[in-house]
Write a structure and sequence with these properties.
transcription; Tscrpt_reg_HTH_GntR
Length: 218
């Protein structure tokens, strides 16, 4: 599609970001049908940028098409979550190992540590704030690893499982925060093996908590 036929890139990106946030923050529940006319009016855009944003969300796996072809917020089965978490374990352990091999400024890592320590020592952040932070930290690790493909794969998988992430499971808050500190400390120490092992423990523990959370809801 030519640029003349499609929506302005900035408008599409803005629409995409707004819809993505609505899904990730639980404002649009799984199974919600994204009727073009209604959502175009709600977001104050024409159908073209909305349609292009929905197409991007389908690519990300956050939206699927119903049997009638109507786009709807994805429902992720337990078997899909188990598979996604297995692949995340492989990719994110490698990302942590590679990040520990990179000589980089400690400033960003220390900022993440300070935020975690503030979370632990003061009032617990709200669910959205914590989920946003968790996503940002995991993506910073993936980005530092230096592989664009690895980063994109991890991003897609994190987006798909975010609804079941630690921000939704109160019992995982403090253990998850301390596991994040262990990962960061290993990266700062430039210890690839320790970073990989710390990430493996983190993913394994998150997996068990997520599966227990799903079974409680079923």
């Amino acid at each position: 599609m030519s640029l003349q036929q499609g929506a302005e890139p900035n408008l599409t990106e803005n629409t995409l970001e707004r819809l993505r946030k609505m899904i990730l923050r639980g404002e649009l529940a799984a199974g919600t049908h994204l009727q073009e006319r209604a959502f175009a009016e709600q977001l104050g855009v024409s159908r073209t940028p909305l349609r292009e944003a929905i197409t991007r969300l389908i690519t990300e796996g956050l939206v699927t098409r119903s049997t009638r072809g109507t786009p709807m917020v994805s429902r992720i089965s337990v078997s899909e979550i188990v598979e996604i978490l297995h692949v995340r374990r492989l990719l994110e352990c490698e990302a942590a190992r590679q990040a520990a091999n990179v000589i980089s400024s400690p400033e960003e890592w220390l900022k993440f540590k300070a935020t975690i320590q503030n979370f632990l020592e003061n009032e617990r952040p709200d669910r959205v704030t914590h989920a946003d932070f968790d996503f940002d930290l995991h993506m910073h690790i993936a980005r530092t690893a230096g592989s664009k493909l690895l980063m994109e794969l991890i991003q897609g998988l994190k987006l798909k499982t975010r609804i079941y992430d630690q921000g939704e499971i109160p019992s995982r808050f403090e253990p998850g925060a301390r596991e994040h500190l262990e990962i960061i400390d290993a990266i700062l120490a430039r210890d690839p093996e320790a970073a990989e092992n710390a990430m493996r423990r983190h993913i394994d523990n998150a997996r068990e908590a997520i599966l227990a959370h799903i079974h409680r809801l079923s």
